[in-house]
Each structure stands twice: as C-alpha cells, then as structure tokens.
C-alpha cells in the first residue's frame, strides 16, 4: 500500500508540502497540487484521516450519487433508501453530480478516503478506466445503470422489456412514426437498454429504427416543451407518437400540446416513464410505465448495508414494471 513518503519521493516535494496540498493550503501552488494529486491517483494513495480518527469503527455514512436533486424519481428513490439506512443505524449523504464527470469522480474518491462506508450510484456519467477502477476497488452498489460485464453489484429494472411493451402497445394501436426521447449521452445511446426495447418492438412490425426520431434531452418539463418544437419541425414526416424518458418530460410535451391546440392522443400520443403522482392529475391522464421505485430503493439500501457488513445478500424481489393506460395513448 502506498504511503505519503512514496508520493513525496515521486513528486520531489517534501512530506510537509504533500500534506499541505491535501489540506488545500494556500501556500501550495495549483501547479504543485495538480502534480501531487496526479501522483496520488497513480499510486492509489488516499489519506485515511477519517478512518484513523474512528479507529476502524466506520463512518456509518452511505453516499448516494444522483444526477439532479430536482428530478422526482431521485426524490422518491432517496426517500426509500434513507428509511432503510436509518433503521440499520446509517445516515445517507446525497451527492449531486449535475452530470459533471469531475464531481462524480470526487464523490467516488470520498469512498477511497474512507469518508463513506459505502456508495450507491444511481447516476454514472464518467465511465473512464480510471473511474471504473475506483468503483471496482470499493464498496459500491450501482442502481439502474448499465456497466457492461463489470463485477459490481448491479440492481436495475428490466428497462428493455418495459420500453418494448410500451412501443408494442403504440404499434398495435396503429401508430407508426414513434419517437423516443432519451436522457442518454450521444456516445451511449447505442447501448441504452430502453432504446434496445424500442428498437426490438419496431422490428417486430417490420419498421426500421429512424435515428432522427431519437431525441436527446435532460429530464425536465422545459425539455419536454422544446421536444415538441423539434417534433413539429419535422413537417410531414413528424412522429405521431412519442415514448419519453420520464413523466416530467412527458408533461412538458403535453402542456405544450395544449398551448398549440394539438389533440392528444389523436394527433400525438404520449407515453411517459415512472408513474409519478403528476401523471394521474394531468389532463388527459398520462399513460406511463410504472416502475417500483419504493421497492427498488429499499432493496438497494439493503444490499448496500449487507455489502458493508459482509453479510449474505438478500434475495432479489421482483422489480416489475407495468404499463399504466390513461388518456394520452
């Protein structure tokens, strides 16, 4: 295991300077700090102040990484996680990435520094080899994110099946120009399980996937409004239905349809994802994919705690989605 003296030897700085850099002392230049931190990462050296102070007792803190605290999905998920963690004697720390890779990496390094006993990742924006190495080295549970064949506890619903069923439902009702709104980055849309389900349903009806119909957005009401603008700009080839990444975006599309006197679902059918409380009170009611957020959060927290305490993992419950039919499709 690397020591602070190893960092000093490789950088050429004294141990005192290394310590000052770690504590963000103003006497150490930004250039020196960068060199020191780069070498620390290279040597896999992280100061263990918290663990030393607690003498192996742990922090009883679990970090929960999310992209945006304003997203209702994360609000309900964190609520479920917190209740289970509290009952087991743990507190949670909510860490918001804003989809910024640097933020995410700093939060992962908190685990390496023993400032957290475990880390639940519901958002993953930086999948560089360095970050994956940090993930694999610690007590991590990844929730609703795809990490390929990495040997990391991974808990997720069957998103491919969910979007397949929703797309198939639209096709069976006669819709043929179906758009899909994704929150994924362009580099990841080809491995998105939701898009895979959407594509598979189109194939079942001998319809080619039109990538012009795959729209990338953040999950907000405002993004829903701009989505409709882009759909209408397609002219005669515009979609007659849209499957959306979240109920927030779907509600933005629906509200804009009302403003422009576009009939839903006659002119444009809309299906959301999550079945948030807003879905039921919209007019017409939002047809959406219900996912078991409460059960998901409870199970994620239980697995995380078992992982920290080196106990047997609990049996995985059935995390089934369900298409809830209302008025928009």
TrEMBL record:
InterPro entries: HTH_LacI, Lambda_DNA-bd_dom_sf, Peripla_BP/Lac1_sug-bd_dom, Peripla_BP_I
Molecular-function GO terms, alphabetical: DNA-binding transcription factor activity; transcription cis-regulatory region binding
SMART domains the UniProt entry points to: HTH_LACI
Alphabetical keyword list: DNA-binding, Transcription, Transcription regulation
Family matches, as CDD domains: HTH_LacI, PBP1_CcpB-like
Annotated Gene3D superfamilies: 3.40.50.2300, lambda repressor-like DNA-binding domains
Domain HTH lacI-type: start-end pairs: 2-56
PANTHER family: CATABOLITE CONTROL PROTEIN B, LACI-RELATED TRANSCRIPTIONAL REPRESSOR
Record-given protein name: Sugar-binding transcriptional regulator LacI
Gene name linked to the record: lacI
């Amino acid at each position: 295991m690397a020591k602070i003296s190893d960092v000093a030897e490789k950088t050429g700085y004294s141990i005192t300077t290394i310590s000052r850099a770690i504590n963000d002392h103003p006497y150490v230049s930004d250039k020196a700090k960068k060199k020191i931190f780069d070498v620390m990462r290279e040597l896999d050296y992280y100061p263990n102040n918290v663990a030393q102070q607690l003498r192996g007792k742990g922090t009883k803190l679990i970090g929960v990484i999310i992209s945006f605290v304003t997203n209702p999905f994360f609000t309900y998920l964190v609520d479920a996680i917190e209740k289970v963690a509290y009952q087991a004697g743990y507190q949670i720390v909510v860490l918001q990435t804003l989809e910024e890779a640097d933020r995410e990496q700093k939060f992962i390094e908190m685990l390496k520094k023993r400032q957290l006993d475990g880390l639940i990742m519901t958002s993953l924006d930086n999948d560089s080899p360095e970050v994956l190495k940090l993930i694999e080295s610690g007590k991590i549970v990844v929730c609703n994110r795809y990490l390929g064949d990495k040997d990391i506890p991974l808990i997720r619903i069957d998103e491919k099946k969910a979007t397949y069923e929703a797309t198939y439902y639209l096709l069976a009702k006669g819709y043929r120009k179906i758009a899909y709104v994704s929150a994924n980055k362009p580099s990841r849309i080809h491995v998105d399980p939701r898009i895979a389900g959407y594509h598979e349903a189109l194939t079942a009806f001998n319809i080619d996937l039109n990538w012009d119909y795959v729209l990338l957005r953040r999950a907000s009401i405002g993004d829903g409004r701009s989505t409709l603008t882009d759909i209408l700009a397609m002219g005669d080839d515009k979609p007659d239905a849209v499957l959306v990444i979240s109920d927030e975006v779907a509600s933005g599309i629906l509200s804009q349809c009302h403003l422009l006197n576009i009939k839903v679902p006659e002119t444009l059918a809309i299906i959301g994802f999550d079945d948030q409380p807003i879905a039921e009170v919209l007019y017409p009611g939002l047809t959406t994919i219900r996912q078991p957020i409460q059960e998901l959060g409870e199970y994620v927290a239980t697995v995380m705690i078992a992982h920290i305490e080196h106990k047997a993992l609990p049996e995985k419950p059935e995390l089934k989605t369900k298409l809830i039919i209302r008025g928009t499709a």
